[in-house]
Amino acid sequence: CETEAGSVSAHARIHILEKLKFTPVPQSSQCLQLDRESSVSCVATGRETPVIHWSRADGADLPSHAAQINGVLRFRTVTRADGGNYTCVASSSSQGQIRAHVHLTVAVEVEFKLQPEQTTVYQGHTAVLHCQASGDPQPYVQWMLRDTQLLSSSSSRFQKMQNGSLVISDVSTEDTGVYTCIAGNTCSIRDTAAQLYVVEKPVHPRGGDEDKSQFKMFQTIALSVAVAVAYIIAVLGLMFYCKQRRKNKRLQKSRAGEQPEMECLNGVQLNGHRMSEIQEEVALTSVRSSANSEKQQSFPRAHLQTITTLGRGVFGEVFLAKARAMEEAGPETLVLVKSLESREETHRAEFRRELEMFSRLDHAHVVRLLGVCRETHPHYMILEYVDLGDLKQFLRISTSSDEKLKPHPISTRTKVSICAQVAHGMQHLSNRGFVHRDLASRNCLISGQRQVKVSALSLSRDVYNSEYYEHGQVCIPLRWLPGESVFEGEFCSKSDVWAFGVLMWEVFSLGELPYPTLSDQQVMEGLQAGTLHLSPPVNCPAHVCSLMSRCWASSPKERPTFSEILQILTNSSADTKV
Question: Where is each Ig-like domain found (predicted)?
């Protein structure tokens, strides 16, 4: 201190007293992982090192498996009883004490049970991205695309199932992108992502078909009454010839001591009788025998929410839907619905036959009948749906040359496995006395785990109309049928074997159209002349090509059974290395 008289100096000591405080303040709400080791920290500082002590807010003792060291409360194995309110007390002899209250919640960390996979679908089709998470509390799932949350509503193309899976209907190329699934509860949050690619559907060249249609139109106009009469006479003669031929066949079988085949339940020949003679009896029998099972499987129409239309078949519309309270596995189930809109008795009888068939089948490689709606028209048949859709689409996408798609090549082992799985399902179907009549890759479904199931989408009116041919006012899968089915209307287990041979060719040709260079008329002519031949696919194993040829034997008796086919493919699968 300085004055006019002089200066005086002195020294002073300043003591900074640190306040007793938490560093940092413990979070008021924290989580403990059930059945795991967990800990909660409480750190405080002051003028002198404080003593820290944990206690339960209700005054109860800490559990025996919990210990506190230097402010850390550690649980060796967390139990449900460890949840509740706790108090951390920091005390000092010179500064007193402070308290922090913490609520501990015992929970299970979020884990993904099913994560989305890279998926490629055709434009206009439906994409399914799976995302299922578990935890306690039950985690909430939401989807993001390009940093934007996808909102689900009844009118939106994006539908989030209650199990977390995302269904996108009528996809376009703009839907291509990385989809992120975020699952979280009060204790943890996790995310996982997958790429969706949308590609344009390839169009098979069908040279000559349009010209043929125009020719038929002019030919119809030019027909005269005289030609019509001659046609009727020719048809009557042909019917008499066919009837006599079948009669001779039955006589030959009777002389040889053989029994007529009984496996043509839905074919034209059944124990020596024509379909026209037994159609009504089969329909009535189907209704009677399945009455009890249908009553049990009856499903409320109001519990179905349509997602998107997949296409149209001879019965009517085929669509994808969400079904509430369908199965115990979850509150919602993704299902395939086939509607019966047609009033034609032949279509109605075929619908009943198909309903009867699926109601009696229970196999891992055949889609399940989940329910029926018959209280009003149109009637609904509710079938199991598999996430990646039909096998045809899966095969075609794998051939894409678009570098952006990064398609996964299908190994020979996987191709053999696909064929074996279809054979397994068809063996079950055949053993139960049923005939499919439309077996092809388009009528099989495949999952992300490469599990294949035989189904019957039969989208003959639009999506796959190019693979059907109108013959005698009926749409038939011409390129998958043997001669006896096309020209004599006979459908048996062995006609399904012929179709299975074509399906194997599809699998190893990666979804190519059979006889791609031939028009439908040329296929008809080749089938009638017995000269129709499918070239062996590239890199197809010799034993598979040999099996295909056996399936296409002109005589049904010379074709193998599905049991033989399954045994051959199962044995060859073990030997296949690539």
Answer: 26-105, 110-197
The answer to whether 367 and 358 are in contact (CB under 8 A) is yes
Structure confidence at residue 368 (pLDDT): 92
pLDDT value for 412: 93
Decide the pairing of beta strands 166-168 and 132-136.
unpaired
Selecting among 175, 438, 496, 520, the annotated active-site residue is 438
CA distance 328 to 179: 28
Q: Distances in Å between the alpha carbon of 241 and those of 248, 272, 411, 524?
A: 11, 16, 49, 20
Q: How far is CA 533 from the centre of its chain?
A: 33
List the binding residues for Mg(2+). Answer: 443
Q: Which of 394, 396, 368, 392 is nearest to 382 (CA)?
A: 368
Confidence check: pLDDT of 151 > 50: yes
The DSSP element (H or E) to which 31 belongs, if any, is: strand 29-33
Please, which contacts does 69-74 make with residues 24 or more away whose CB atoms are closer than 8 Å?
71/41, 71/42, 71/43, 71/44, 72/39, 72/40, 72/41, 72/42, 73/39, 73/40, 73/41, 73/42, 74/37, 74/38, 74/39
pLDDT value at residue 270 = 35
Q: What are phi and psi of 134, to 5 degrees?
A: -120, 160
Q: What is the pLDDT of residues 434-453, one digit of tens each?
A: 999 999 999 999 988 899 99
Query: What angle (nearest 5°) sits at the alpha carbon of residue 515, between those of residues 510 and 516?
Result: 70
* Burial readout 428-461 (b: 16 or more C-beta within 10 A, e: otherwise): bbbeeebbbbbbbbbbbbbbbeebbbbbbbbbbb
Residues in Cβ contact with 309 at an 8 Å cutoff, skipping those fewer than 6 apart: 317, 318, 319, 320
Given pLDDT bands bounded at 50, 70 and 90, which one contains residue 325?
Answer: confident
- Report which residue type is found at 192: T
Q: What is the CA radius of gyration of the chain?
A: 35
Identity of the amino acid at 272: G
Q: With 0-12 CB in 10 A as exposed, 13-18 as middle and 19+ as buried, what is 173?
A: exposed
Out of 173-182, 274-283, 424-433, 484-493, least confident range: 274-283
Rounded distance between C-alpha atoms, residue 415 and residue 510, angstroms: 9
Specify burial of residue 102 (Cβ count, 10 A radius: 0-12, 13-18, 19+).
Answer: buried
Alpha helices in 178-290 (DSSP H): 209-222, 225-255, 275-289
CA proximity to 506, closest of 517, 514, 497? 514
| Pairing state between β 369-373 and 330-340 | unpaired
| String of DSSP letters for 307-352 | EEEEEE-SSSEEEEEEEEEEETTEEEEEEEEEEE----HHHHHHHH
The token duo for 201 is: 């559907």
Angle, CA of 497, 533 and 495, to the nearest 5°: 20
Strands 2-3, 6-7: pairing is: antiparallel
Annotated binding site for ATP: 311-318, 338, 384-390, 442
Q: Which helix (H) or strand (E) is 144 found in, with range? A: strand 140-145
User: SS3 breakdown of the chain: % helix, strand, coil, rounded to 5?
Assistant: 30, 30, 40
Dihedral angle, C-alpha 134, 189, 168, 145, nearest 10 °: -170
Clarify whether 496 is annotated catalytic: no
The tokens describing 328, both together, are 């115990």
Segment 268-290 mean pLDDT: 36
Which residues belong to the annotated binding site?
311-318, 338, 384-390, 442-443
